């Protein structure tokens, strides 16, 4: 009702709660400006910091992250989570889940899965966008209840973090990872095979080692095969993405 007083405000309603990622996507589709700021309705961040973020974007940055300052709940969990994010993605910011703003094209050029709103920063960094950060004050929540404090949410967030890292690294060069494991396995299989032959020549049994040789060689072949399949899949995905870019 309050929003109806302003012509430049749109209220979007879903039939049910589809989560924050879907809300961001809907907001993106309905937006008309060139800068998107993601601001939660619990009002933990100062509205004045939105202006600071927009000014920073106008200086030439593509995405501006706020990093939380002051006392707040789950500080240890947040620090661990952000440390893992920096370790996995090599991103030059301290906090990936505070107040943030970006150019519209940043969101338009990334594919967000359910709950992947938490990884907008590493996804944007991976796409080559210019990123910086500014301090933002985190206040006590005015509305709503925290949704990320339960053990279940923390575990889901951790596995999502690994999934994003997997997509941004492994899926780009599957043969590099699977091929390396396959090569190591085949090398060990070859060396153990030579050892088993030497032991056999000196009259020792070789059957346990023979089983190990078979296991290592088959594992090596399997990993190489998975690497080849991954390369084919990656090639198809890249071609589809290229077609999608041309159609835009």
UniProtKB/TrEMBL annotation:
- Which GO molecular function terms does the record list? glycosyltransferase activity
* Alphabetical keyword list: Cell membrane, Glycosyltransferase, Lipopolysaccharide biosynthesis, Membrane, Transferase, Transmembrane, Transmembrane helix
Q: Where are the transmembrane segments?
A: 154-171, 177-202, 209-229
Q: Name one GO cellular component term.
A: plasma membrane
Would the keyword Cell membrane turn up in this protein's UniProt record? yes
Q: Which Pfam families match?
A: Glycos_transf_2
In this chain the Glycosyltransferase 2-like domain maps to 5-70
Q: Which SUPFAM superfamilies match?
A: Nucleotide-diphospho-sugar transferases
Output the superkingdom of the source species. Bacteria
Q: Which GO terms describe its biological process?
A: lipopolysaccharide biosynthetic process
| Alphabetical list of Gene3D superfamilies matching this protein | Spore Coat Polysaccharide Biosynthesis Protein SpsA, Chain A
Q: What protein name does the entry list?
A: Glycosyltransferase
């Amino acid at each position: 009702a309050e929003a109806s007083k302003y012509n430049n405000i749109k209220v979007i309603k879903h039939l049910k709660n589809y989560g924050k990622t879907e809300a961001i996507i809907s907001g993106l589709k309905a937006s008309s400006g060139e800068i998107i700021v993601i601001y939660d309705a619990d009002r933990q961040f100062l509205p004045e910091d939105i202006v600071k973020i927009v000014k920073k974007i106008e200086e030439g940055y593509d995405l501006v992250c706020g990093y939380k300052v002051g006392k707040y709940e789950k500080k240890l969990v947040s620090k661990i989570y952000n440390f893992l994010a920096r370790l996995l993605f090599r991103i030059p910011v301290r906090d990936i889940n505070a107040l943030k703003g970006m150019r519209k094209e940043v969101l338009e050029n990334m594919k967000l899965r359910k709950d992947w709103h938490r990884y907008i920063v590493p996804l944007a960094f991976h796409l080559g966008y210019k990123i910086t950060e500014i301090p933002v004050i985190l206040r006590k929540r005015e509305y709503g209840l925290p949704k990320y404090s339960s053990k279940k949410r923390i575990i889901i967030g951790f596995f999502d973090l690994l999934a994003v890292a997997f997509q941004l690294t492994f899926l780009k060069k599957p043969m590099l990872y699977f091929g390396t494991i396959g090569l190591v396995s085949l090398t060990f299989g070859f060396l153990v095979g030579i050892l088993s032959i030497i032991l056999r020549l000196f009259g020792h049994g070789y059957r346990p080692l023979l089983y190990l040789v078979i296991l290592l060689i088959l594992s090596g072949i399997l990993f190489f095969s998975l690497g080849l399949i991954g390369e084919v899949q990656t090639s198809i995905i890249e071609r589809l993405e290229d077609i999608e870019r041309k159609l835009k």
